[in-house]
Hints:
The chain is an alpha+beta fold.
Amino acid sequence: MHPRRHVPLVPQLLLALACLSPPAMASAHGFTLLGPVAMAGDRLPQAQVADAFGCHGGNRSPALRWLRVPPGARSFAVTAFDMDAPTGSGWWHWIAYDLPAGTTRLPAGAGAADGAGLPAGARQARNDFGAPGYGGACPPAGDAPHRYVFTVHALDVDALEIPADATPAMVRFLIHRHAIAQASVTARYAR
């Protein structure tokens, strides 16, 4: 018979709270993303809305800035994802990767198809519209507000080995495989 071990309640409580913390605070170092909205859940600005499919926005990627980069980050990837798209698997609006280790911000419009606003060496995958770069929000008319999750991923490699014609799923697989931390901000949009 083994004696019953007593585990203090405070560490158990802290562990439970850590599991509930939002993705932006998932890193022990406080890795944080500041995005197109002041607080999670705010309305996505019109500048980040598509100018197609009945939507009339600026179709520009937002300015993003990240703080407290975790040790060991050798490059970054940035993604924008609509988790409420009526596809059964969401909708990838933007995937930029191979952002150099010293990068801590992207200006508004960095996600243009030509990638001219990205740091040297950075690349963009096709989004679910089928083109490289940022594709703005445009949920179906009448839908409840969709959640658009902007995430910066700190990676443990200098560059991802990805073919130019890779699908968003393949790029996300490699990002996930090499991520050491991530931070997110979520905005909502409906029309």
